[in-house]
Every structure is written in C-alpha cells, then in structure tokens.
Design brief:
Radius of gyration of chain B: 24 Å
CATH architecture of the largest domain in chain B: 3-Layer(aba) Sandwich
Strand content of chain A: 35-45%
GO cellular component, one term (chain B): acetolactate synthase complex
Number of strands of chain B: 20
CATH superfamily of the largest domain in chain B: Thiamin diphosphate (ThDP)-binding fold, Pyr/PP domains
Helix content of chain B: 25-40%
Pfam families (chain B): TPP_enzyme_C, TPP_enzyme_M, TPP_enzyme_N
Shape of chain B: globular
Strand content of chain B: 15-25%
Number of helices of chain B: 23
Distance between the termini of chain A: 36 Å
GO molecular function, one term (chain B): thiamine pyrophosphate binding
Pathway (chain B): Amino-acid biosynthesis; L-isoleucine biosynthesis; L-isoleucine from 2-oxobutanoate: step 1/4; Amino-acid biosynthesis; L-valine biosynthesis; L-valine from pyruvate: step 1/4
Structural class of chain A: alpha+beta
Number of domains of chain B: 3
Oligomer: heterodimer
Order of helices and strands of chain A: EHEEHEEHEEHEE
Radius of gyration of chain A: 19 Å
CATH topology of the largest domain in chain B: Rossmann fold
Strand order of the largest sheet of chain B: 3-2-4-5-7-6
Bound molecules: thiamine diphosphate, magnesium ion
GO biological process, one term (chain B): isoleucine biosynthetic process
Largest sheet of chain B: 6 strands, parallel
Helix content of chain A: 25-40%
Chain lengths: 165, 562
C-alpha cells in the first residue's frame, strides 16, 4: 500500500516495565523489516512504566502498521505518534573533540555559540555535552568536524507532547 | 493460607482454568510437576515427540474451541515445541505451553538443558512468560489462559524454573485478570457498521469472504443468516471451511491459489466484498493490485493490524466477527430490502454459469485418483467427519473435495503450512471429541514427519483414521517443479518409504491398502468400520496435479485449469 512518501516519525511508547519488553519491541521492528533510526528507553515517574522513544522512517501505511503491531504487544500500554502534533524534542550528545593548542579557542567559541558545556578536559581532547533537536546537533557536528571528532555518544531523540491550550 | 509447592500451585491454577487434559512429555526440569500431575484428575496424554504435543493441544483447541495445554521439559523439550507454537500462532489458536526451565540460580550459565525459550519463542507466541517469583505463579497462569483465548487468540508460553516448582508458598486463587495494556475490542463501532448498509443496498454483485475469524468467534450461524438474507454468495479461505453449508446454492468453495474457478472469478468481479475474519494472505489474494479491484471492501476483524495490512479497504470494522454479523443482521431486519435480491439475479446467474462451465474435475481411469479417494470418503461419511490434514496436494484435495458441514471440523495448518501437523492434530481432536469420526488426510511425505504419534493414538485407544494419498512424491513441490522448473524433480522423490500397512501393524494398529480404483470404496468402508486406529494407504496417480492453480503472485483469475 504505497500511498505516500517515506517520512520520519517520532513514536513515544509507554510500556509495562517487564523483563524482555525491550526485546519484544526491538524484535518486532527487526522481524517485520521496520526501521529504527534511534531508540531511547528509561523509567517514567511511574516505576512500573517505561517510556521508549523510537524514531522510525516509513510511508503512512508502514507507520500505521508499526503502530498497530506495537499496540498488539501485550506489554505496550500506549503508542503516541508525534507527527502532526505539537511536541518538544531533545537529544543529548557527548562529543570528544580534538583540541590542539591552535584550535582550542575555536572549539570553545563553538561551544559557546551552541550553548554546549565542556565536561571533561584532557591534554588532547575536550569532551562536550550538547542538547538540542536533531538539526542543532547535526549543525554543530558539521562545524566541528574539521577540527577532528574522536568519539560521539548520542541518546537519540526524546520527545513529549506540548500542553494543549 | 494453604502452603503449597510451586507444582501444586501450578496444577491448582490449571484446574481453576478448567483444564482437564494435557498433552506432554516429561524430563528432568518438570519431574516435580509430573509427580503432582498424576495425583490430579487431569488426563495426561504422553506423546512421542514434543512437536506432537503442541499440535495435539492445537488440534484439541480447534476441535473444541477450548484452550489446548501442553507440558514439556526444558532445553530440547522446549525447542521441540517451536514449530507447534509457530503453527498455532499463524492460525490464531489458543494454546498454553508450559516448559520446564533450569533452577533460577543456573539461568544464564549454559546449564544442562538450558535454553532461553522465552527469547526463542517471542516472535511466535502471542505472549510469553518466565516465572521468576513464586508469588507471580498463579496470576501468570490466569493471564496466560486469558491472553490465549481472548481477542485474537494465540499461543502463550510459560517457562517454569525447577526450583520454583519445588519450593512452597501460600496459595490463593486469582480470580480476575487486570491488564491495562491489553484491552481487545469486541464490540464493533456501530457507526462503522451503519456505513455498510448503503453499500449493501447499492451492490449489484456482492460477495462474502469468510475466514478463520468466523470459526474462532463462533460466528458461523450469523454468517449463514446474513448471506441467505441478502442472497449473497459465500467463499472462504482454507481456514474458513465449514462456516457455511457446503450444499447451499450460495456456496462457491474456497478461493485463492487452489480455489475454485467460480470463487476466484466472483472475487475479482464482485462490486462489494464483505470480508469477515480474514487477513488477506498472499495465497488468497495472488497479485494484490488486481485482487477484488472492482469492489468496495468491508473488512471485519478483531485484530486492527490485520486491517489495511495488505489491501486497502473502504470500511474497516474492528471487533468480534460474530458480534459484528449479529448487529448487521439486526440492522438489516429494519431495512427495506425489497427488490435488492431481484437486482442481483444476473449476478447469481453469472455465478451459476461459472459453476457449470468450470467445475472441479478429474477423470478416474486405471490408476486411483487422489480426488476420487477424498470424494468417496466424503460420500461415505456424509461430510460429517472432523478432518485434519497434512500439507501439500493432499491438503488441497481435502479442501476441494471433502465438504465439511460444520465449523471446527476442517483442521489444517493454514498459515505455516506445517507438514506433520495432521496426525498429532487428529489425536487432539479425537481427545476433544471422543464420539466423532476423526480422519487425518495425509501425504506420504508429511505422515512420516510425525508418524511416531501412531504409538500415542494406539496407547490411548484413539480410533483415528489415517488416509494416506501415496503418490510417492513430495507432490506439491513436484507440482511446482513440473509447472515452473522445467520438470526437474530435484529431491522430491519419496518412493523409498516404509510399507505403511506393516508399519501400522508394527504400531499395533490396522493397516489397509488400495492399489486399484475398485478397491478404494471397499477399503474405506472396511477401515471406517473398524473401531481402533486404522491407517489406509491409497496408491494414487503419481503425477496428478492440483487444479485450478494460480501461479504465485499472478492475479487469481489467471488460473491453470485441467
Ligand atoms: C515442515 C515442512 N517442510 C517442508 C515443507 C515444504 N512442502 C510443502 S508441500 C511438501 C510436499 C508434501 O509431500 P506429501 O506429504 O507427500 O504431500 P503431497 O503434496 O504429495 O500430497 C513440502 C515438502 C513444508 N510445508 N513443511
Ligand atoms: Mg506425496
């Protein structure tokens, strides 16, 4: 059922905090050939409930199937697709940037502009912490790349709906 | 409060669920359970292979509408259930499989006979559990049975560490299931159903397509009422056979790859397709773009993910099939239906013409035709037997020529197409329905996949009749090779087989053989009259083909005919 273009969807999935629930969700995506761009999971304010945030790509038919299949998993309480809704989105990235004496100032300037924080300073590398939406993180990575990136760890997107007015 | 061992709690909880029958096989990790099991009133059927235990539980469930239960040990016992679970999962059959597990302290240590069966079976169960706290045991069992039989049914597995079975804990029966994350929709949306009425009124060429969901929801009577009121012809999937009276004018037979000419033509020409409890499998639709392309489609199913998965529909209705049909029938009572049936006369005439020009056909010559065996079996038993099937040509001829007259009587591995299903499923069906005639229609290849269950049937005096259509080939694969692979029969020759008559005797059953057409009826009559397990071998035409046949992926109107 090809009815539309592939699009990115951020899904927020509330699950019972049961052993194996991550494997159930991940296995569903791999077993049915669905896409996972990023996946992020942790407990919510209710300890029995975890929230998984999954970024996936697919046309409307595929994403509809993904949501229906997710809802079929017994431990899945609720699936929210933020597409077309008002929501806030953040991702955290830790980036280890090469900091040679000649470009330290430039690194710090970028850190300042992007409102990152340097959280570890070594002889050769600065580790910085950056939060933002995906656009901001890729913009920063593009700018900093020429200076040399040693390692990156990213959380993947997190999202919550905005309050309805 | 009563202090009981885990094994005792397990068995009490099973009894709470009304379990009186278990198919199983013992082993180290479940000895505590077996030790207690024999002290209860639950009847245990000792199979000869754990795959047979799951298929038997499955056949039991399909024939009775109750949950089938199976008990096996850890490790190899557990892995042997995987094929059975996948079979039940594909066909939405309520089965609960209890597996032993190594003691908790050893889990993860590659202990003797340890496998991560919960990990292995996650994608082929509706849900599964590893019990790690004895306090969760009775609730888990309650939930497992509830999940297996509710909503879209399916198999559920519970993994039971050995130490939990032997330790003691207080037991309090659990009375209610409380799963906030699992709330199947039974009651269909009335607004959606009301939208169906104008489509019914306008339709000139309506058709009903019914599937396994109608069997599972016990909706056969409502479906028949619905079809007759609207003079609408009915076709079913393989899984739906038996939901509509086979001798009715409106009955078209099965559709799809080996469907009847009339059913496939009607599907592609209809202007309204009312699909109930089906999931539009590729063996049903063929080329999806041309499938029912002239029709508006109403799709009723309890599983939302079945709707719009494969075909676009005009009106989706999520809910229990029987309930939806019941409501539709009630709504139709109030409808002005005068004239609509007259307007459909040309459509019904067209269908009669299809029926008479291209009926299912074969010619019985010097060699036994497999179709003749099934047709004779159907005549002698008046279509009232419970049929189980193996997989392949035998299964398709059974579907085409044995006209079961009731739901829950055509028991076949539809979704998985699992060879070796028929005999153990027949055991389960016979246990569920001791007074019914149960016949396994088998191929010479498939029957050898779980032939060891002959011993089970003999041990418990189950008077199953096995009809082997022996074409000395893995016939269905050979058919594909003949038609699409230049007649190169790569590895499908099965001529080296046991002497089935002697084999039956070796198991303590009766073996009969027919090698000529004139022997078919006498052998069937003799076999059916014998009280115990009988295996009848029919030496059939080796290279007979199942017709009609739609090549995989082609439009279902492009049938190869005899
Ligand atoms: C477990 C399993 N293995 C392989 C297949 C593939 N397969 C489908 S039909 C068939 C031939 C079955 O042979 P037989 O039981 O003799 O039936 P026939 O088609 O000859 O009637 C095979 C091998 C299958 N469906 N299931
Ligand atoms: Mg064969």
């Amino acid at each position: 059922m090809n009815e539309s273009m592939n699009e990115k969807h951020i899904l927020s999935i509330l699950v019972e905090n049961q052993p194996g629930v991550l494997a159930r969700v991940a296995g569903l995506f791999s077993g049915r050939g669905f896409n996972i761009e990023s996946l992020c999971v942790a407990e919510t304010n209710e300890p029995q409930v975890s929230r998984m945030t999954i970024v996936t790509i697919g046309d409307l038919g595929v994403v509809e199937q993904i949501k229906k299949q997710l809802n079929k998993i017994v431990d899945v309480i609720k699936v929210i697709d933020f597409t077309g809704k008002k929501f806030v989105q953040r991702e955290l990235a830790l980036i280890k940037i090469r900091a040679r004496p000649e470009n330290r100032a430039e690194v710090l300037r970028m850190v300042d502009i992007f409102r990152c924080r340097v959280i570890d300073v070594g002889a050769e590398y600065y580790t910085v912490e950056l939060t933002g939406d995906e656009g901001k993180i890729s913009a920063f990575l593009n700018l900093i790349k020429p200076m040399g990136i040693k390692e990156i760890a990213r959380t993947g997107a997190l999202a919550l709906g905005r309050e309805k007015k | 409060m009563e202090m009981l061992t885990g094994a005792e709690i397990l068995l009490k909880s099973l009894e709470e669920e009304g379990v009186d029958t278990i198919f199983g096989y013992p082993g180290g990790a479940v000895t505590d359970i077996y030790h207690q099991l024999v002290k209860t009133d639950i009847k245990h059927f000792l199979v000869r292979h754990e795959q047979g235990a799951v298929h038997a539980a499955d056949g039991y469930a399909r024939a009775s509408g109750r949950v089938g239960v199976c008990l096996v040990t850890s490790g190899p016992g557990a892995t042997n259930t995987v094929t059975g679970l996948a079979t039940a999962y594909m066909d939405s059959i309520p089965v609960v499989v209890l597996t032993g597990q190594v003691p908790r302290a050893l889990i993860g240590n590659d202990a003797f006979q340890e496998v991560d069966i919960v990990g292995i079976t996650r994608p082929c169960t509706k849900h599964n559990y590893l019990v790690i706290d004895i306090a969760d045991l009775s609730r888990t069992i309650k939930e497992a049975f509830y999940l297996a039989r509710s909503g879209r049914p399916g198999p559920v597995l519970i993994d039971l560490p050995k130490d939990i079975m032997s330790m003691t804990a207080p037991y309090k029966p659990v009375k209610k299931v409380n799963l906030r994350s699992y709330q199947p929709t039974y009651k269909p949306n009335l607004r959606q159903l009301n939208k169906v009425l104008p489509l019914i009124r306008e339709a000139k060429r309506p058709l009903i397509l019914a599937g396994g969901g109608v069997v599972l929801s016990k909706g056969s009577e409502e479906l028949t009422r619905f079809a007759k009121k609207l003079m609408t012809p009915v076709t079913t999937t393989l899984m739906g056979l038996g939901v509509f009276p086979p001798r009715d004018q409106l009955w078209l037979g099965m559709l799809g790859m080996h469907g009847t000419y009339r059913a496939n033509m009607a599907t592609s020409r209809c202007d309204l397709l009312i699909a109930v409890g089906v999931r539009f499998d590729d063996r049903v639709t063929g080329d999806i773009d041309t499938f029912a392309s002239n029709a508006k489609i109403v799709h009723i199913d309890i599983d939302p993910s079945s709707i719009r998965k494969n075909v676009a529909v005009s009106i989706p209705v999520v809910g229990d099939c029987r309930l939806a049909l019941e409501i539709l029938n009630d709504l139709l009572e109030k409808e002005q239906l005068d004239g609509i049936n007259e307007a459909r006369a040309p459509w019904l005439d067209q269908i009669e013409e299809w029926k008479s020009t291209k009926p299912l056909a074969y010619e019985q010559g010097d060699v036994i035709k497999p179709q003749y065996v099934i047709e004779t079996l159907c005549r002698l038993t008046r279509g009232s037997a419970i049929i189980t099937t193996e997989v392949g040509q035998n299964q398709m001829w059974a579907a085409q020529y044995y006209h079961v007259d009731k739901p829950n009587s055509f028991i076949t591995s539809g979704g998985l197409g699992c060879m070796g299903f028929g005999l153990p499923a027949a055991i389960g069906a016979q246990v569920a329905k001791p007074d019914k005639l149960v016949v396994d229609i088998a191929g010479d290849g498939s029957i050898q996949m779980n032939i060891q269950e002959m011993a089970t049937a003999v041990q418990y005096g189950l008077p199953i009749k096995v009809v082997i259509l022996n074409n000395q080939y893995l016939g269905m694969v050979r058919q594909f090779q003949e038609l699409f692979y230049d007649g190169c029969y790569a590895c499908t020759d099965m001529a080296c087989a046991p002497d089935f008559v002697k084999l039956a005797e070796a198991y303590g059953a009766v073996g009969l053989r027919a090698s000529k057409p004139e022997e078919v009826e006498p052998v069937l009559r003799e076999g059916l009259a014998i009280e115990g397990l009988v295996l009848m071998e029919f030496r059939v035409e080796k290279e007979e083909l199942v017709y009609p046949m739609v090549p995989a992926g082609a439009p279902i109107t492009e049938m190869l005919l005899v």
